[in-house]
Amino acid sequence: MASELEPEVQAIDRSLLECSAEETAGKWLQATDLTREVYQHLAHYVPKIYCRGPNPFPQKEDMLAHQVLLGPMEWYLCGEDPGLGFSKLEQTNKPSHLCGRVFKVGEPTYSCRDCAVDPTCVLCMECFLGSIHRDHRYRMTTSGGGGFCDCGDTEAWKEGPYCQKHELNTSEIEEEEDPLVHLSEDVIARAYNIFAIMFRYAVEILTWEKESELPPDLEMVEKSDTYYCMLFNDEVHTYEQVIYTLQKAVNCTQKEAIGFATTVDRDGRRSVRYGDFQYCEQAKSVIVRNTGRQTKPLKVQVMHSSIVAHQNFGLKLLSWLGSIIGYSDGLRRILCQVGLQEGPDGENSSLVDRLMLSDSKLWKGARNVYHQLFMSSLLMDLKYKKLFAIRFAKNYQQLQRDFMEDDHERAVSVTALSVQFFTAPTLARMLIVEENLMTIIIKTFMDHLRHRDAQGRFQFERYTASQAFKFKRVQSLILDLKYVLISKPTEWSDDLRQKFLEGFDAFLELLKCMQGMDPITRQVGQHIEMEPEWEAAFTLQMKLTHVISMMQDWCALDEKVLIEAYKKCLAVLMQCHGGFTDGEQPVTLSICGHSVETIRYCVSKEKVSIHLPVSRLLAGLHVLLSKSEVAYKFPELLPLSELSPPMLIEHPLRCLVLCAQVHAGMWRRNGFSLVNQIYYYHNVKCRREMFDKDIVMLQTGVSMMDPNHFLMIMLSRFELYQIFSTPDYGKKISSEASHKDLVQQNSTLIEEMLYLIIMLVGERFCPGVGQVNTADEIKREIIHQLSIKPMAHSELVKSLPEDENKETGMESVIEAVAHFKKPGLTGRGMYELKPECAKEFNLYFYHFSRAEQSKAEEAQRKLKRQNKEDTALPPPVLPPFCPLFASLVNILQSDVMLLIMRTILQWTVEHNGCVWSESMLQRVLHLIGMALQEEKQHLENVMEEHVITFTFTQKISKPGEAPNNSPSILGMLETLQNAPYLEVHKDMIRWILKTFHAIKKIRESSSTSPVTETEGTVMEESSKDKDKAERKRKAEIARLRREKIMAQMSEMQRHFIDENKELFQQTLELDASISAVLDNSPVVSDMNLTALGPAQTQVPEQRQFVTCILCQEEQEVKVESRAMVLAAFVQRSTVLSKDRSKFIQDPEKYDPLFMHPDLSCGTHTGSCGHVMHAHCWQRYFDSVQAKEQRRQQRLRLHTSYDVENGEFLCPLCECLSNTVIPLLLPPRNIFNSRLNFSDQPNLTQWIRTISQQIKALQVLRKEESTPNTSLSKNLENMDQLQLPEGFRPNFHPKNPYSESIKEMLTTFGTATYKVGLKVHPNEEDPRVPMMCWGSCAYTIQSIERILNDEDKPLFGPLPCRLDDCLRSLTRFAAAHWTVASLSVVQGHFCKLFASLVPVYNFGDLPCILDIDMFHLLVGLVLAFPALQCQDFSGISLGTGDLHIFHLVTMAHIVQILLTSCTEENGMDQENAAGEEELAVLALYKTIHQCTGSALKEIPSGWHLWRNVRAGVMPFLRCSALFFHYLNGVPSPSETQASETSHFEHLCNYLSLPNNLICLFQENKEIMKLLIESWCHNTEVKRYLEGERDAVSYPRESNKLIDLPEDYSSLINQASHFSCPKSGGDKSRAPTLCLVCGALLCSQSYCCQTELEGEDVGACTAHTYSCGSGVGIFLRVRECQVLFLAGKTKGCFYSPPYLDDYGETDQGLRRGNPLHLCRERFKKIQKLWHQHSITEEIGHAQEANQTLVGIDWQHL
Ligand SMILES: [Zn+2]
Ligand SMILES: [Zn+2]
Ligand SMILES: [Zn+2]
Ligand SMILES: [Zn+2]
Ligand SMILES: [Zn+2]
Ligand SMILES: [Zn+2]
Ligand SMILES: [Zn+2]
């Protein structure tokens, strides 16, 4: 850094460095015209400091600016050394109680749901943790930047406004002290002077619009001729466009262009070229030309460098002011005064006004700086906050107008400050009263929505992008209105009443423009040509929903206001309906002797609109009148006489009829826009102020009119009047079979109408309509939601309407109606309905959608069946209506209603197919049930002497009247009770009859003496037998249904398999895979099972039969038969790695023969265990490949697997695979024919023999490679060479395997090589066998780790897939040498052997500290046959295995002793030294000697032995697995159970002495030599001298990083994280690597790097070093786990954080507090340990195709 800066420093004008702050300040103190003096100083110096070249040098500029410009000001202000002055100020300061911390992007913020006045009141993390709210119900979000902490604002919190830190001195806040008293007169005067000048300067220069000319008082004498080409940001052009254009225009690299674009996006502008005017102008024109083709061009200005310099300093100055006022509240107040002081030009001329009013002209960076200053000054001083608020309100209209034209997001607009004033209750009220704010906002809003139709209603044209943009901006006004209304007044002054009502008038004007907007007419004949626009109107309605509700809430608070508002609303409604009854002659309707007049109107023929906000507001107010009892107290004040019920109901009724007709299919030709409108009309987001209020309005109307009249009008609007007024309609219709569609349509309409009547009578859970409270209303909603199915908290929240504070009120009542069931390892916590609440279930609950209704019906009936109850779902008992609505119930017993009921029952009795429907009947039965419940209630609650006017039972007992003389309703019900075609409804009819009789009994008992109960019981008895028969029949129906479901189930099974992979595999393997009887039923006695060596337990040959999953053919696994293969997936791995910084640098040169003990760069093989014929697989793979090629030509899409890289999905389980492993018999048995146990060499002899053989081979090899020796000479030499006895190096054994197996051996070997080294396949490469052995060893090690970490027994029940995989992999690796070049394998063996026994100089072999002994063991054992096959001296393979194993084990023990941590860790020796301890101590001494005493002295053999035992254990366990799978010897049963460590059992099984040290003693001589040779290695010496490190044993398992309990601390951590590449910028998508804990700046241009020629994001780049291409991340801001594999694959995974309701919150949308779920985190860790991340991604991508399209490499 220093060297880079040097030339720059030299270039600095010496005069700058010599300029003394103190002297300058001194001059200023003397000055007569301070302004002139300061301006001259600035004019002279600013251009010398800023903008001296094409690129800014912030450090240099800051340094100089402080020295030359700001320093003098600080001196001037303090009158002394500012270091002293400011600290004095700080000491005398009485700090404010406001926290005021301004939030950074991504910083966590907290809001208390119990105490915050509204959701915009938030705390910073520090204040939150020190507040009482941390124990309340809080919500957590991440800030989008801007806004500040409300701690200390007493208006923001109902309780606990201070945190501990800000609570200090709260006693003093009452008295509003002037902070200036703490400052001296001098300081005050100087502060005024300097602030006034500097603030003015900053405002002037920032709002300066000329491009090449400075304000006159800043103009310089000598002016340079340098310009900038300044590029500004907008929200039209994309990053890519800007980058592309810049490369063209200013001829820069892509990287530079990205840099420019990033800065433009962040700061709002950036100079892209520096030079003379022409030069800059040229760049400008290219940019404008290039970006102006389709859209508005990018904004570019050519600005003189001195202007830019002054502007840069202006920004610096504002930040400086912000920091200076932090020293003292007094200085803050002075700055506020300066800012708000009216300037010379009067109104709007204060500096604050000037800044606000030029907001939209400023660039982003400038706006951010001055907004911040406002926040830390004006908004922190309560007195000036108020004055500022007034200025803001006065400028409101202008600011909004500017904002509409501005193209920046709202967050960087000054209008976004509204939340700071409008949500503060006293300020908001002050602004309403003094500035008429409500009216201003609404009027401004109306001004911006100018398009009206002929009737003056809003008219939205087709929604273009630019309109949508503008419309979105207009909506922020609604947000402001919401802010103003959010805190409701506790007291009303006359002024407030007057201004509120004025605002209400304006609001009614707004609603009037919406009443009847977007009218529609039914389309007949042709389908509509173009879907009409509907979204804008609904967006408006949706945004206004809360405002409408809040208006009503305000009205409810004051009776006078309520009455006035009601009158106003009614008046406006009448205006809307002006001329409503004029024109055509009314029609007269008459039924049952009642008649009524109504207008002619037909929904299906005339215009109808779904938007009726005025009617709905009136309905809301009417309910309030009823609730607050104003209607009874001052009826004379109300315009009740003016109400015309028919007029009130007309429009809501039309709207409901429209819905019914749409449902009946009459509006099919009107397209989707109508369907959408109907959907939203009922949707939870809108229904409160739409559908619900329409129901209330009808209820209001009905309660004020004759129910018969209402019903007739309703029949007429439903266009059903004819049907019910014509006797014998049913008969007529059924004779005319031609009108089938019409009949169907009418049936639906009748059903809908009945449903509407049910709702009108039954929906009384709105406080004011029925005698209920808000809690009852919510309870009922929840009960009905949970009647459908148990639900998670978030699901339930979504189904309930939220109020303006985003609360549903659910938490307060949920306990009363539901039980909570905790979640398991997956899934979510669920609420279940309490059984006792089921009786409140109403099948015709008005907020059910049709689908929900039928689901709920089914669920409830099922429940009843389970409880062995009858399945009737009778209407619940309802709360009584409020008096204003009380007469509504009479609709049930009105003549027209009875006629409708009777008619439908009649149709049912007649049972002629087409006119009646089951739904119709069900609804009639429900209505009858409701009437009976009503009557029962009346009887039960009757007061003495009261006449009961509700006499439904009497009415239905009477037969119908002339002319058709039908039987009574009751009679018909009794008839229907036995109708065979009404099976489903029988329970309900029976319930009705029972209730009827019960009511009769009550009536009789109340009128006369108690009556006997006979009637009821008799009836019940008689029906008992029938019951039985019925139940039997029902059982039969149920059985049939079950069968049908079973059939569907098998269909669904495929999906099930996907979801429950592991479970499925474990069960399925039993028949589909290797019928492995080998393992768990040992043939030989357990006691002396030996896995290897000459004494190896002989296992009888097991025949193995497997079935191909592709052709279903069974085949035996044999050496000579066709190959059977397992689908397998090979991947590189760092899961066991102890050093993740290591990775293969140059794969072409990398030598994998020796694995380093840090286990970096492993190759893992996994398999789903599914078996196929090799040729079946080949055919399958070819077809996949062909299909893929065709598909890629058609659509260039990715799949979840990469065919070009050999990837495919297992045809059975769709598991990602990239090769296949052949199935083999234990390969050793094939070569064991020459077994001879009689005379086997001991270790020393064996080593000698092998060493000789190796020497011989090496000599031969050397001969061969010498070019001038002919073949014959070669042979001669061989004779000369003393070949060890029985060794025949020119013998080449015959390969026993069939061609197809050989081919598969090569296939898998090559795949392992290709993937493991990331090279092109080359089956000839000598490294192929090494990779095979390595993968075998690594895979065994990783499985041993998992078993160990999970405390599972080594040979416990392993999942079949793992078992199959390990067996095949081991046997494959053992057989692979048969297809490799013999001399290559021999060469490997020689080298591996030489690493332990120095027989031949191979040059650079690793020392024993740098060899993973298990990898070495596997390599030696598997390469050995290549040497042994030429040995005819009688040494068996088994002998070799045993000696190799013993040798490696001893080397490992030496390795452990060399590296064991020698701390005694305070553990005491338990008992006297045993045999092992003494032996290990002796061995240690030997090593000690060999190392020349460099090894530390160890006093205790006990500790040593413990170390050795613990250190060698993983190796022994891996070896046991290896030999078990290699030789097929069953494991001892003890090792199949956990508990102990099984050290002895393992030793027995592995043919080792229990005292491992005995191995050394038995082979004393040779071991002494070997130990010496190992210890003399220079690397070992360096280690012992502390010059290098080595891995010690046992190695610890890798874990994912520790995560904090509380998620917010992660957010906080991430919010402090800044992008490492763009100098302190906050990262937008901070992402945490769960493997190593690195925080990355994901998903952004700044941190893209190039990887293998492609640009990749920070995460993908990180995976290459950290996880060999696989990565596990946590996206902190999204609370989402991200899995990545390679460049194209990835998926999101559910995070290990849950809220109290057992749910995750991906995207942090709900903001409930989140806590770590350890089980789920373990599950992720397990996926990682099991190498299943890639597989998981594959499954996720198969299940969700949209994941395939994501550009994972850019994350
Ligand atoms: Zn705070
Ligand atoms: Zn605080
Ligand atoms: Zn609280
Ligand atoms: Zn097959
Ligand atoms: Zn499979
Ligand atoms: Zn990492
Ligand atoms: Zn970055």
Automatic annotation (TrEMBL):
EC number: 2.3.2.27
Source organism per UniProt: Camelus ferus (Wild bactrian camel)
Entry's localization field: Chromosome; Nucleus
Keyword S-adenosyl-L-methionine listed: no
Signal sequence range: none
Pathway: Protein modification; protein ubiquitination
Stretches for region Disordered: 1004-1033
Function (record text): Ubiquitin ligase protein which is a component of the N-end rule pathway. Recognizes and binds to proteins bearing specific N-terminal residues that are destabilizing according to the N-end rule, leading to their ubiquitination and subsequent degradation.
Zinc-finger among keywords: yes
Zinc finger (UBR-type) residue numbers: 97-168
GO biological process terms on file: protein ubiquitination; ubiquitin-dependent protein catabolic process via the N-end rule pathway
Protein family: Belongs to the E3 ubiquitin-protein ligase UBR1-like family.
Protein's recorded name: E3 ubiquitin-protein ligase
Domain UBR-type, residue spans: 97-168
Gene Ontology MF terms in the entry: ubiquitin protein ligase activity; zinc ion binding
Gene name, Swiss-Prot/TrEMBL: UBR2
Keywords for this protein: Acetylation, Chromosome, Coiled coil, Isopeptide bond, Metal-binding, Nucleus, Phosphoprotein, Transferase, Ubl conjugation, Ubl conjugation pathway, Zinc, Zinc-finger
Enzyme class: transferase
Catalytic activity: S-ubiquitinyl-[E2 ubiquitin-conjugating enzyme]-L-cysteine + [acceptor protein]-L-lysine = [E2 ubiquitin-conjugating enzyme]-L-cysteine + N(6)-ubiquitinyl-[acceptor protein]-L-lysine
Predominant cellular place of this UniProt entry's protein: nucleus
